């Protein structure tokens, strides 16, 4: 066939299929460098078993979770460019790099294979080009090169190829692979190789020219593959080659890049001039659409949720959530993107009103591309057309902010007439033909003579029953107007709100759409049902209500709600399903199609549309413990001081990533679920315990996902553990027991000492009342009586009795005032001096600043030393018997000196030896023992110092005793006073 004839055929086919390929579009979502892509030049796309999307770009590999792109997810690769990508059945990512190295990324580790690792011999050039990576049904990985060979990797472990097989295809290089039955097929320039096991058979194609196969897809018993401009097929059963889709030649002559067949069997053809989308019908015929014109497209990929991804060169990534919803916008010929109102006229045309005061006539039919037939503007001023309706008189009425207009329904006649200048918000025709309107400051009825006001309120909705009765929705609530009563406000308090649309059903139910309070359904003046976001509405702002035979359709500022009349169940249709905008201004139904006016064009879809709301899957991104990243595990055993936990997670749903709601509960801490829009959970200071973090997620209209959990077991500090508590209790008990034992022991010891002290006081008492002293004193009294010296006898007896009474008073006291001690000493010395015939020179002195009333000392402490000085020091001296007692105070100590000029302790001891008597001064010894006991028990700070005095020649010259007594009435001083 000559090129001329082929060209004529192409032109005829183009004319034949022109309307099939004409304007028609979908809602695309585009991602570029500004969204986080490392480059707008993309090579390939794949999805792992967890649902993450992986992209190969000119800037390196990146990973997408629906919200953000993660560059360099494989750090070892850096920004190296990958061309081919494949996730195999074991979730290993296989890639061929631009330098033909093969990289396998497996469980967080990457392994690189050089071409020489794969080739059979050194005669193969090292700069071979890898053209494809495949996996056959047996799990073998196939690497196809441009140098006439295919490498089969049978097994690999830790980055080491354990077994491989290299196939040579001498006649042509294998470009495309497919599996059918028990065989693998490889297509090249001159035909196909069939490989079963390790044997291969060549099948030559009948074409007169060579074909360089490109990307392919399998459908039924065939594999479809492309050359530069054409599409071919190979039938596995008949072993026949064939050219396919000849009618597409006018659109593929710029070059075919890749082919793809989706889950429904529809075909996607990526070309250097856009995307050809071939939709199958039930009768086996195709509908053709040419999308993304003037774009150089790479590959099409359908993910597990049936979303479509399209890579491009220089334009980034395109995303199509659904092919059920078609879109007509300015690129397709509309005069404006923002469509505010819509009707179907009597000729079956769609009439739309726009925000720039323009209106358009369109032809929309299922299975055919839309066609903009006519467009015009009501005025040159860009005002909005808020409402349109067909009047029974044959005219179309336009209610706009610039006035009321009417025109002939024929799109060929462009004349329209302005009826008035009022600023309208809505307009409706009653069954009797009367026209009701809502305006910026009133509700009106349009009469031939003009406008008649029935209510002075800003009105957005009217629902007339006839000329005498109408429901009116205003910014201040719902009114019911009758010609007899006028406008009466509804007595339902919850309807005292801004109302934006009203619709009457066939069974006289009034559906009320509010600006912010959701949807009310009234029957006989009472609320039959109320629907809000809690019942499943996409928004509480309801803009339009369409009551058709099968469903109620409610347009909101967040999509469309399809409501079942039976149980009021709600399906949501929004941008996640393919709507160009979530802001819906008007809805109509036409021959099984729902047509919606949006802020970004006109959308239409079958009313039995299958809403696709995949349940999201939750994945943990990072877990930080005490601000340190850690590996993700199902259970963590943590010490008590590693209790600052931060968890980030993502719920994968590429359609609805911005509509995700998380429910979070830390079992062991939270009683109820906590709702959040952010995929983070932070617990800065968890107490020791066993916790389970539970997370579930849902989109606006999906079910809740499966609950994902992490467990954190935070141990108690060692001091709060059972073994430590038991040991501590035992230790404390032992210590308390020991303390108790010591206390009891000390108490017993103290009691023993107290008993001894009492004995010592009794002993001191006995020493002061010793028989010798008593006998001598009574003898002296008797002598005075015999000498009839009554005065002296009386005086002596008085002093003696006073002394005895003083001693008895002091005997039961631990401490006595210094004044009492001095008084007793004076009585004692006076009696002793009388016994010595007045030859005892004694004197008791106190410092001038001494407070003898305020100072205390142990009772009967001084007297034994005074008695010892007289009895053992002064008694053996004939003349000049001197005794000096002095009390003073230094610091916190009271001191007492007992100073005599007797014979001294040494001479006294000699006299005792000469008399062969081992007499020991018991009072002295007992007092010293008493001092020791009092110091050990009461901490009285008693000290004794004995000084043996001598004269200039060194002869004994008496004894000086100094007693130090610490005072308890003042702060203790550790400075011992100096002796005199």
| Rg over alpha carbons | 57 Å
Report the helical percentage.
10-25%
- Largest β sheet strand count, sense and barrel closure: 5 strands, mixed
Q: How far apart are the termini?
A: 147 Å
Provide an overview of this structure.
The chain has about 1000 residues and is of the alpha+beta class. The chain is built from eleven helices and 72 strands. It has a five-stranded mixed beta sheet, with no helix packed on it. Strands 67-69-70-72-71 form a five-stranded mixed beta sheet, with helices on one face. Strand 54 (about 585-590) and strand 55 form a beta hairpin. Helix 5 packs antiparallel against helix 11 (about 920-940), helix 6 (about 770-785) packs antiparallel against helix 7 and helix 7 packs antiparallel against helix 8. The longest helix is centred in the C-terminal third of the chain and has 47 residues, at about 720-770. It is elongated. The N and C termini lie far apart (about 145 Å). Mean pLDDT is about 85; it is low at about 1-25, about 915-920 and about 970-980.
What would a concise description of this structure say?
By secondary structure, the protein is of the alpha+beta class. It contains 11 helices and 72 strands.
């Amino acid at each position: 066939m000559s090129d001329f004839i082929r060209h004529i055929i192409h032109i005829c086919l183009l004319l034949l299929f022109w309307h099939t390929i004409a304007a028609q579009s979908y809602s695309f979502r585009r991602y570029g460098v500004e969204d986080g892509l490392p480059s707008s030049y993309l090579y390939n796309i794949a999805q792992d078993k967890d649902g993450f999307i992986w992209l190969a770009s000119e800037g390196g590999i990146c990973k997408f979770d629906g919200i953000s792109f993660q560059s360099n997810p494989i750090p070892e690769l850096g920004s190296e460019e990958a061309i081919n990508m494949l996730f195999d059945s074991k979730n290993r990512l296989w890639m061929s790099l631009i330098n033909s190295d093969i990289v396998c990324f497996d469980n967080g580790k990457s392994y690189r294979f050089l071409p020489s690792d794969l080739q059979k011999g050194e005669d193969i050039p090292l700069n071979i080009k890898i053209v494809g990576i495949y996996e056959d049904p047996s799990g073998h990985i196939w690497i196809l090169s441009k140098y006439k060979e295919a490498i089969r990797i049978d097994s690999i472990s830790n980055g080491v190829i354990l077994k491989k097989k290299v196939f040579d295809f001498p006649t042509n290089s294998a470009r495309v692979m497919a599996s059918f039955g028990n065989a693998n097929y490889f297509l090249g320039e001159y035909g196909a190789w069939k490989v079963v096991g390790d044997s291969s058979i060549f099948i030559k194609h009948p074409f007169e020219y060579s074909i360089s196969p490109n990307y392919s897809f399998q459908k039924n018993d065939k594999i479809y593959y492309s050359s530069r401009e054409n599409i071919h097929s190979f039938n596995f059963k008949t072993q026949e080659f064939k050219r396919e889709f000849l009618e597409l030649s006018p659109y593929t002559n710029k070059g075919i890049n890749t082919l793809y067949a989706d889950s429904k069997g529809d075909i996607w053809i990526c070309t250097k001039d856009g995307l050809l989308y071939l939709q199958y019908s039930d009768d086996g015929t195709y509908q053709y659409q040419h999308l993304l014109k003037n774009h150089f497209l790479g590959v099409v990929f359908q993910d597990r949720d049936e979303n479509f991804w399209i890579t491009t060169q220089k334009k980034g990534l395109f995303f199509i959530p659904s092919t059920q919803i078609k879109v007509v916008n300015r690129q397709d010929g509309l005069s404006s993107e923002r469509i505010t109102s819509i009707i179907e006229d009597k000729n079956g045309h769609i009439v739309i009103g726009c925000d720039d005061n323009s209106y358009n006539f369109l032809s929309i039919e299922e299975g055919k591309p839309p066609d903009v037939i006519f467009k015009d503007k009501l005025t040159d001023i860009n005002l909005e057309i808020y409402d349109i309706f067909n009047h029974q008189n044959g005219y179309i009425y336009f209610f706009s902010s610039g006035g009321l207009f009417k025109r002939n329904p024929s799109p060929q006649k462009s004349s329209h007439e302005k009826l008035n200048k009022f600023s309208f918000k809505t307009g409706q025709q009653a069954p009797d033909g009367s026209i009701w309107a809502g305006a910026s400051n009133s509700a009106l009825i349009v009469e031939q003579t003009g406008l008649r006001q029935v209510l002075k309120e800003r009105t957005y909705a009217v629902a007339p029953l006839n000329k005498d009765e109408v429901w009116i929705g205003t910014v201040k609530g719902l009114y019911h107007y009758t010609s007899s009563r006028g406008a009466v406000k509804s007595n339902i308090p919850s309807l005292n709100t801004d109302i934006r649309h009203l619709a009457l059903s066939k069974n006289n139910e009034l559906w009320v759409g509010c600006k912010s309070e959701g949807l009310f359904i009234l029957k006989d003046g009472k609320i039959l049902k109320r629907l809000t976001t809690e019942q499943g509405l996409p928004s509480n702002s309801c803009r339009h209500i369409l009551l058709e035979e099968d469903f109620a359709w409610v347009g909101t500022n967040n999509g469309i709600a399809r409501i079942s009349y039976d149980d009021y169940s709600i399906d949501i249709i929004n941008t996640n399903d393919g709507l160009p905008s979530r802001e819906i201004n008007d809805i109509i139904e036409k021959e099984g199609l729902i047509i919606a006016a949006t802020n970004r064009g006109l959308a239409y879809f079958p009313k039995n549309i299958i809403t696709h709301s995949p349940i999201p899957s939750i994945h943990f991104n990072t877990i930080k413990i005490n601000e340190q990243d850690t590996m993700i595990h199902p259970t963590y055993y943590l010490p008590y001081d590693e209790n600052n936990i931060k968890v980030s997670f993502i719920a994968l749903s590429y359609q609805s990533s911005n509509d995700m709601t998380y429910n979070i509960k830390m079992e062991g801490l939270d009683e109820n679920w906590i709702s959040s829009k952010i995929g983070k959970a932070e617990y800065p200071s968890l107490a020791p315990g066993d916790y389970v973090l539970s997370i579930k997620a849902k989109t606006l209209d999906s079910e809740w996902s499966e609950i994902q959990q992490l467990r954190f077991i935070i141990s108690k500090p060692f001091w709060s553990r059972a073994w430590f508590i038991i040991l501590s209790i035992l230790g404390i008990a032992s210590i308390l027991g020991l303390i108790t034992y010591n206390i009891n022991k000390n108490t017993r010891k103290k009691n023993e000492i107290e008993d001894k002290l009492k004995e010592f006081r009794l002993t001191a008492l006995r020493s002061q009342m010793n028989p010798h002293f008593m006998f001598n004193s009574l003898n002296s009294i008797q002598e005075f009586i015999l000498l009839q010296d009554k005065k002296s006898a009386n005086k002596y007896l008085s002093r003696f009795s006073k002394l005895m009474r003083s001693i008895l008073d002091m005997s039961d006291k631990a401490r006595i005032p210094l004044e009492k001690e001095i008084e007793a000493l004076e009585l004692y010395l006076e009696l002793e001096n009388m016994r010595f015939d007045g030859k005892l020179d004694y004197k008791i002195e106190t410092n001038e600043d001494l407070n003898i009333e305020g100072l205390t000392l142990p009772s009967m402490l001084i007297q034994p030393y005074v008695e010892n000085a007289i009895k053992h020091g002064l008694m053996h001296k004939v003349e000049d018997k001197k005794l000096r007692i002095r009390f003073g105070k230094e610091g916190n100590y009271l001191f007492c000196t007992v100073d005599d000029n007797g014979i001294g302790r040494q001479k006294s001891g000699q006299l005792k030896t000469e008399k062969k008597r081992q007499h020991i001064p018991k009072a002295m010894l007992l007092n010293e023992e008493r001092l020791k006991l009092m110091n050990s028990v009461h901490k009285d700070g008693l000290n004794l110092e004995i000084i043996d005095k001598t004269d200039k020649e060194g002869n004994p010259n008496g004894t000086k005793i100094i007693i130090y007594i610490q005072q308890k009435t003042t702060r203790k001083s550790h400075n011992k006073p100096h002796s005199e």
